[in-house]
Write a structure and sequence with these properties.
- This protein has about 280 residues and is an alpha/beta fold.
- It has 2 domains: about 80 residues, no CATH class; about 180 residues, P-loop containing nucleotide triphosphate hydrolases (Rossmann fold, 3-Layer(aba) Sandwich).
- It has 11 helices and 9 strands.
- The protein starts with 6 loop residues before the first helix and ends in a 10-residue tail after the last strand.
- Strand 1 and strand 2 form a beta hairpin.
- Strands 4-5-8-3-9 form a 5-stranded parallel β-sheet.
- Bound molecules: adenosine-5'-triphosphate, magnesium ion (MG) and zinc ion.
- Zinc ion binds next to loops.
- The site of adenosine-5'-triphosphate (ATP) has 17 residues, from helix 6.
């Protein structure tokens, strides 16, 4: 029952209710109104607005309105975006640009420098960023660090697409030829700043260290998403153990689009697995 309304709807209901009260009624209910939101769902406490994110203001035409709280509204918006991105709070804590050590190897220095350059030059609906190559090099780490900086610094939302977690369901509905498939991939086609992590994981066939084939169903679903994003200039981030060159040899249509989407912020990484260091 409680789950049926979102935090935002709950706050708007409250705001609407408060809006219709007279000043004396307001003085009576205010202590309760504040108390009922005394545990803010996003953990951000603010005395100015009683943790609602809104304060009373006056419209130029003289009537009372609720306005975003100048002390906390922006922070609440960022917290909401991070909560809905698909990345866990623990991973946001772990994978930051500050915690990415550029001194571990020449490769890590290049990754960090390119990430910083990207963040400096990022434009809305502009090019994305991609890291391709060996396991354990910090590809996921650096991409999540970029994504959270986009939200914290540029005020843009981002979304996380875990290839392994999302694909089985999408492939199943694509094979069933129902309208469900279109609905399911709509978000991935259109959302701002999508990070596709582990592209083609477990769907590629490798022979003599070379990618020689990718499962047809995986190619079909990925083409639908990537082509739509390519045409819409929807910023996309990629990480994959396969290089863009390898992917292009198997499927030129997808490979060339990925290349264009991340250029000039694409990087091929090679080196020792950071997970195994010291093991
Ligand atoms: N330069 C670095 N500084 C700090 N931590 C690093 C660095 N490189 C890797 N790590 C850490 O090593 C672990 C593996 O990194 P990550 O998961 O990002 O690798 P990956 O390239 O995505 O690997 P895979 O291809 O297997 O997904 C993580 O805990 C990450 O934080
Ligand atoms: Mg990874
Ligand atoms: Zn506030």
């Amino acid at each position: 029952m409680q789950k049926a309304i979102t935090d935002k709807e709950r706050i708007l209901q409250k705001v609407g209710y408060i809006h219709h009260l007279s000043q004396s009624e307001m003085n009576q209910v205010r202590p309760n109104a504040v108390r009922t939101l005394s545990t803010p769902p996003d953990g951000i406490k603010c005395e100015k607005c009683g943790n609602t994110g809104y304060i009373e203001g006056v419209h130029p035409e003289g009537y009372e309105i609720m306005e975003p709280c100048p002390l906390c509204y922006e922070r609440r918006k960022i917290a909401r975006r991070l909560r809905h991105s698909g990345v866990s709070p623990q991973d946001y804590d772990r994978y930051t640009l500050a915690s990415f050590d550029g001194g571990r190897s020449e490769m890590s220095a290049r990754m960090k420098a390119l990430a910083e350059k990207y963040l400096h030059e990022h434009v809305t609906n502009g090019h994305g960023f991609g890291v391709f190559g060996s396991s354990g090099m910090g590809k996921t780490h650096i991409c999540i660090a970029i994504c959270q900086s986009l939200t914290r610094k540029y005020d843009e939302p981002h979304y996380y697409f875990s290839y392994r977690a999302e694909m089985p369901e999408l492939i199943k509905s694509m094979r069933s030829f129902t309208a469900e498939y279109g609905k399911q991939i709509e978000k991935w086609k259109t959302c701002k700043n999508l990070y596709i992590d582990d592209l083609f994981k477990f769907s590629g066939k490798v022979q003599n260290g070379r990618l020689v084939n990718i499962d047809q169903d995986d190619l079909k679903v990925m083409f639908d998403i990537i082509n739509a994003r390519y045409l819409n200039h929807a910023t996309t981030f990629f990480s994959s153990e396969y290089t863009v060159g390898d992917i292009s040899k198997v499927d030129g249509a997808i490979g060339s689009r990925i290349f264009e989407m991340v250029e000039p912020y694409g990087l091929k990484v090679e080196g020792e697995n950071e997970r195994l260091k010291g093991a």
